[in-house]
Amino acid sequence: MENNRKKLEETIANFNPNENGLTHHGIFGLPFSIEESRVVLVPVPWEATVSYKEGTADGPKAILDASQQIDLYDPINGDGWKQGIAMADIPTNIYFNSKQVREKTSKYLDKYVENEIDTELQKQINADCLDLKNYVKETTAKYLSEDKIVGVVGGDHSVVLGFLETLGEKHKEFGILQIDAHADLREAYEGLEYSHASIFYNALKIKNVKKLIQIGVRDISPGESETIKKEKDRISTFTDYEIRKSIFEGKSWGKKCDEIIKELPKEVYISFDIDGLQPNLCPNTGTPVPGGFTIEELVFLFERLVSSGKKIIGFDVNEVAPAKDIKDQWDGNVGARVLYKLCLLTLKSQKIK
Fold first, then answer.
1. Among candidates 294, 293, 274, which has minimal Cα distance to 285?
2. Which of 230, 231, 228 is CA-nearest to residue 242?
3. CATH homologous superfamily for 2-349?
4. φ, ψ dihedrals at 184, nearest 5°
5. Where are the beta strands (DSSP E) in the chain?
6. Whole-angstrom distance, CA of residue 156 vs CA of residue 318
7. Residues 6+ apart with CB under 8 A from 152
8. Could you read off the pLDDT of 26-72 as tens digits, one per residue?
9. On the CB side of 211, how many CA atoms lie within 13 Å of its CA?
């Protein structure tokens, strides 16, 4: 540990933070190795179960590329980057496996919409998704065992389940703060157990998840609504409608943030689906929905969360899908900036400056 710290200091001394993206091509243009870094980002280019538009498997690469354009100073935690932030290599085997499984899923769904279930394909897809979950679980557990702060970069939303299971084995209890246009509480959506639309149904099977707080949700199925009512002691859903209505009636966003934060336990995991933002900020995400937040509103919430004394124990950014036109990479740009804020806020919440 001491050797890594010394190496980190040497790397910083030889690094020009004003030209980060010009000479270094790590995440955010930083020069740090994983060994040196306090924050390790795990890219998971996977989208086997997406049910509308594809593209999120290209999210980690789009975020990495766009991150080179971010200036490092931030008023929230100006020197936070000096603790070291690194992204692991994007696993090409996962990327290509996702493409293969996605082909299976497309064939499966073609029959499913005709009320015909191909049980053999269903079994194969569920097994492939289970393998992916186990890969994420093992990878994140490795970095946590090395005393790293871990963030996952998707991919579709399903990719975080393995990480949540790892955290469930490490922490006695924690809460999840979910930023999302969708509730993602469907049981085995389209017959697929590890669907992106089932991520928090599956997450609630982790007994150490004390509370799930959903904010900005604006697409909920009747079944999900029933689950929220049934699990009212563990789930609190602040819909986009409810939030906007209270603000229109005169309640400040700050007071609404305090209501949200009050529901969370001491340790918090932030799950950031990019479609929780307004669609103009993520036009190519898989299932965009009108409404949503600005980045500034959510950064205010996260900063207030940290100021309240809560500790962020991990995070993810998912569902970023780049445009087909390589010259139009707005989604990756927004995703990279959200990711950088989460890195700095997590470091600050753990009192690492």
1. 274
2. 228
3. Ureohydrolase domain (3.40.800.10)
4. 55, 40
5. 39-44, 85-87, 149-154, 174-179, 209-217, 235-239, 267-273, 311-318
6. 6
7. 41, 42, 44, 136, 140, 159, 160, 163, 314, 315, 316, 317, 318
8. 999 999 999 999 999 999 999 998 877 889 999 999 999 999 999 99
9. 17
Helix or strand holding residue 132 (H, E): helix 119-145
Spatial CB neighbours of 5, under 8 Å, sequence gap ≥ 6: none
pLDDT digits over 77-99, tens only? Answer: 999 999 999 999 999 999 999 99
Query: Which neighbouring-strand residues pair with 217?
Result: 239
Residues 287-298 have pLDDT tens digits of 999 999 999 999
Map tokens 């790590």 to a residue: 26
Q: For residue 148, what are its two tokens?
A: 């790293």
Cβ 26 vs Cβ 256: under 8 Å: no
Q: How far apart are CA 12 and CA 32, in angstroms?
A: 9
What are the CA-CA distances from residue 38 to residues 15, 86, 216, 345 (Å)?
Answer: 17, 8, 30, 13
Which whole number is the average pLDDT over 252-279? Answer: 98
Task: Tell me which H or E stretch contains 97.
Answer: helix 92-112
Compute CA distances 141 → 88, 170, 277, whole Å: 14, 9, 30
User: What's the 3-state SS for 226-280?
Assistant: HHHHHCCCCEEEEEHHHHHHHHHCCCCHHHHHHHHHHCCCCEEEEEEEHHHECHH
CB burial of residue 60 (10 Å; 0-12, 13-18, 19+): buried
Task: Share the mean pLDDT of the chain.
Answer: 95
Is residue 162 within 8 Å of 135, Cβ to Cβ? yes
Handedness of CA 17, 271, 151, 9 (dihedral sign): positive
What is the maximum alpha-carbon separation in the chain?
63
- Is residue 212 within 8 Å of 175, Cβ to Cβ? yes
Domain spans of the chain, in order of start: 2-349
Q: Are 81 and 17 within 8 A, CB to CB?
A: yes
Residue 319: phi, psi to the nearest 5?
Answer: 65, 20
Edge-first strand listing for the sheet containing 85-87: 85-87, 39-44, 149-154, 311-318, 267-273, 174-179, 209-217, 235-239
